[in-house]
């Protein structure tokens, strides 16, 4: 009375595993495209920033985070002293350097 009649279903079509592999193919393709469009360029940019920060020397003219422009006065392992005006030095982390300016840009 409460049990409805069960109907037999047709057998699964042959090659069911192939169709599941083809359904995963677009997902795998999206990850490959994502890697080449987003992840790889970001890793390259991080590597370039790291080499720039490691190559800093006393006297370099830099732009630090926040848009402050100055000249590197002292360098330690993780901290830079950036002179932004006569007698005014800011202590900043090396990683906060955004750009090294050409010589003569900062006066």
Attribute tags:
1 helix; cell membrane; alpha+beta; translocation; 107 residues; membrane; 5-stranded antiparallel sheet; transport; 28% strand; 36% helix
- Provide the low-confidence segments as ranges: none
Radius of gyration, in angstroms, nearest whole number? 29 Å
Strand content: 25-35%
Order of helices and strands: HEEEEE
Count of beta strands? 5
Subcellular location: Cell membrane
Pfam families: YajC (PF02699)
Keywords: Cell membrane, Membrane, Protein transport, Translocation, Transmembrane, Transmembrane helix, Transport
Membrane topology: Single-pass membrane protein
Detailed description of the structure:
- With 107 residues, the protein is α+β, with helices and mostly antiparallel strands.
- Helices cover 36% and strands 28% of the residues.
- The protein has 1 helix and 5 strands.
- The protein has one helix at residues 16-54; strands at 61-64, 68-75, 79-85, 88-93, 97-101.
- A 5-stranded antiparallel sheet has the order 4-3-2-1-5.
- Strand 1 and strand 2 (68-75) form a beta hairpin.
- The longest helix is centred in the N-terminal third of the chain and has 39 residues, at 16-54.
- The radius of gyration is 29 Å and the shape is elongated.
- The model has no long low-confidence stretch (mean pLDDT 87).
């Amino acid at each position: 009375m409460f049990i409805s009649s069960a109907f037999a279903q047709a057998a699964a079509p042959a090659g069911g595993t192939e169709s599941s592999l083809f359904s995963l193919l677009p997902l795998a393709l999206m990850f490959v495209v994502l890697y080449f469009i987003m992840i790889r360029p970001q890793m390259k940019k991080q590597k370039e920033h790291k080499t720039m920060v490691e190559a800093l020397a006393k006297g370099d003219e830099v732009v630090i985070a926040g848009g402050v422009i100055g000249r590197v006065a002292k360098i330690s392992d993780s901290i830079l002293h950036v002179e932004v005006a006569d007698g005014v030095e800011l202590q900043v982390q090396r990683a906060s350097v955004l750009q090294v300016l050409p010589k003569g840009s900062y006066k």
